[in-house]
């Protein structure tokens, strides 16, 4: 059976959250559950493509490394503003593939793309070369969504070390503010035998494509992503970026 | 990212390890103070780097601009894996000397 089968049963589990919270949330969302993401029950049949959504909190790199190891594991970070995955998120996991919903604080501080790619590469056929391209493009998209999207910091000031220092002072200030830090970066993954696609969605004010294109250096922003992916589409006023890679 | 610095005559060598990304701006500012602002020739040995992103390349550009303004020269040495690929994709060798 393929790894991206549709209509699989979705389980709710947890990493770093209480058993009660997982059980209560599963009941509200009408999902089966097991409390500890790292100890799945026998009925969770990895070969038959059962899927899991891990509720995670106080996320650090080791937490994402753990949950990324589970086959077909999506994750949703609980924040002080938002404690449950939306129906749209669950629907994506059920019908399309994996989904990852993280706070801006986590997207800013943790190498999210690295862990997601580690997880996917355990189960999907992917050459080292392709995996490197995907991780780099996904990293750039997630960092852009966090910094230029949700933290709403523009590209200015980056032409000197003093400017960069100011840029990161502003980033740190905003990522410490829950109004910015709790905005979400959502990554939706979908694949078939011949391609893998990622949508990266933020909740920031968006950007003007013409403005972004002024950055002509090949290592910057969308230019780099475009040179790595087979297709790139932005929509939603710059809040939604879709990248597709041949496998 | 972790790094070591050695200075021999007017050549400063920065040996870098790990991941060099946007979050390393503080580290790079220290490297500027320790090496880039002082040495006539500066070598970044990137053989131990596993990953570099666009912000990392942007900081190499700034280091190169700074040392060039002082009449010096900067090079990247021994890129491997993802780092080598990133430098190739972005044609970084057109801007900064790369020593294999």
Give the terminus-to-terminus CA distance of chain A. Answer: 18 Å
Structural class of chain A: alpha/beta
Please name the CATH topology of chain A: Heat Shock Protein 90
- Report the count of strand segments of chain A: 9
- Number of DSSP helices of chain A? 10
> What do we call the CATH homologous superfamily of chain A?
Histidine kinase-like ATPase, C-terminal domain
Describe it.
The complex is a heterodimer of chains A (247) and B (100). With 247 residues, chain A is α/β, with parallel strands linked by helices. Chain A has a single domain, classed as Heat Shock Protein 90 (2-Layer Sandwich). Chain A is built from ten helices and nine strands. In chain A, strands 2-1-3-4-5-6-7-9-8 form a nine-stranded mixed sheet, sandwiched between helices. In chain A, α6 packs antiparallel against α10. The radius of gyration of chain A is 18 Å and the shape is globular. The N terminus of chain A is likely disordered. With 100 residues, chain B is α/β, with parallel strands linked by helices. Chain B contains three helices and five strands, in the order ββαβαβαβ. In chain B, strands 1-2-3-4-5 form a five-stranded mixed sheet. In chain B, β4, α3 and β5 form a beta-alpha-beta unit. The model of chain B has no long low-confidence stretch (mean pLDDT 93). At the A-B interface, α6, α7 and α10 of A face α1, α2 and α3 of B.
